Amino acid sequence: MSDFETKQIIENQFIPYFKNDDYYKGTYNGILEIIEKLK
């Protein structure tokens, strides 16, 4: 994965949920996206 792809996942999957104190959902969505990218 490139730095750009990693940054996109963090900005689009982790941060929006973390801002709403929904750490579980942010982490879950972020990890799923990482898994999809690595397939």
TrEMBL record:
Database matches in InterPro entries: TPM_dom
Stretches assigned to the TPM domain: 2-36
Gene3D superfamilies referenced in this protein's UniProt entry, alphabetically: 3.10.310.50
Pfam families tied to this protein: TPM_phosphatase (PF04536)
Superkingdom of this protein's organism: Bacteria
Name of this protein: TPM domain-containing protein
